[in-house]
Amino acid sequence: MASESEHPSLTRVPTGYRNKLSPKAVRLIKRVYDWVEDECIPADPIFKEQLNQKRWGIPPIVKELREKAKAEGLFNLFLPKHFEQSPGLTILEYSCCCEILGRVYWAPMTMNCHAPETGNIELLAKYCSPEQKKQWLQPLLDGTASSAYSMTEPNVASSDATNISIRIKREGNEYVINGRKLYGNTKANEDLTFYILMGCTDPENPDPWKRHSMLIVPSNTPGLKLVRNLTIMGYDCAPEGHGEYVYENVRVPVENCILGEGRAFEIAQGRLGPGRIHHCMRLIGQAERAYELTLIRATDPQKKPRGKLIGEYDSNIERIANMRMEIDAMRLVVLNAADTMDILGNKAGRYSIAQAKVMVPLAVTKIIDECMQMFGGQGLTQHTFLPEAWTYARFVRMADGPDAAHRHQVGRDQLKTAGGFRARNNAYKQRYQELAKKWGVEDKIYCNLKETF
């Protein structure tokens, strides 16, 4: 009998992390693997054909698979342990499931594990009142509604979220909203129920971190206008899509404010814990599938430029080796981030989260680019999923904050450690001078200099 580690869902999980997986998690990971292999990858052309027939609605095949996933206990797998509906997975364990789901862009939808739903569900569960949870959270958990997160704006540098300028004014028992937003899933999708909006309620507050609030805005609220659907590198990203919006005297009840006025940044940081690396987890799965297709192409006897298989050329052999090692290295980065959050918490794991957020999308865009190159011209067409996979990886370099913002955070934190290294080097200098005196060696280095060792 084959050992558990030989199951295809576990062969790429490093031994040190595999040993941390509970028996229940191992069983779930295997079931997720079988689900994606049997129900999703073969059905990808069906999904796309149904989308062509009705662009802005959840395709029937996804709705059918959602009901099946619920019945089989494969729904809301991402939910942390404090949820009643949680399967009890650690972040590390879920990351193994999430990688598998990433092999098909829409597979997470079948298990209610897709963005932005995962982050929004955690936000609502953590910060909403019981009444808000009943009205807005429960339908998301049931998979009967859909939500969006509305933060980015076209007229300010949104990577610095203190610049968010859409205006929210209180008038009696209502908030009145005026301004513009980019992104946030499109209103054209009939399943979209509400937006979680970040806007400015107190622009004169001397503390820029307390000027903003978050509101729940129903998608059918008068004054909320979809200017147009946005494309990402030419893709419309249906059925969720992205939109450009104008809020013109949009009114919502004060009961729709989450946690209280001025607490948007507190909420935003709580939202972007595990959810910040879910994209990275899925990208590893996309990279694996792209790599597998490339191996097939490289050994296809019908593809023989100048009489040799594509995989027989030395340059391509090296490409294949480099891609294999890079995927495995990026998986280590993601698993380390997940494990760190499990052990030390989200705040302590912010370096490992930033590391994954910067390194993984960049590496995966490069890997998929190499796969397309080995496919030749066909690799740039809809004959494979490679172009849409590359586009998703490129998009993730912006999602949840651009690379530069995360690098800035890491660099700033690293510079704070310089004092400790300076003290250590001064200790080296002092010890050197003691040793030089002991052994009768003339101090030719530090006698007239203040430089470090």
Tell me the structural class.
Answer: alpha+beta
What value does the Rg take, in angstroms? 25 Å
Unreliable sequence segments:
none
Order of H and E elements: HHHHHHHHEEEEEEEHHHHHHH
Distance between the termini: 59 Å
Shape: globular
Give the biggest beta sheet. Answer: 4 strands, antiparallel
Strand order of the largest sheet: 2-3-7-6
Q: Total helix count?
A: 15
- Give the strand content: 5-15%
Instruction: Round the mean pLDDT to the nearest integer and report it.
Output: 93
Helix content: 40-55%
**How many beta-strand runs?**
7
Structure in words:
The structure is a single chain. By secondary structure, the chain is α+β, with helices and mostly antiparallel strands. It has helices at residues 15-18, 23-40, 44-53, 60-71, 91-101, 107-110, 117-127, 130-142, 264-271, 275-298, 314-344, 350-375, 386-396, 403-415, 418-439; strands spanning 146-150, 167-171, 174-182, 192-200, 212-218, 224-230, 242-253. The strands form two sheets. It has a four-stranded antiparallel beta sheet, with no helix packed on it. A three-stranded mixed beta sheet has the order 1-4-5, with helices on one face. Strand 2 and strand 3 form a beta hairpin. Helix 10 (275-298) runs antiparallel to helix 13. The chain is globular and about 85 Å long. The model has no long low-confidence stretch (mean pLDDT 93).
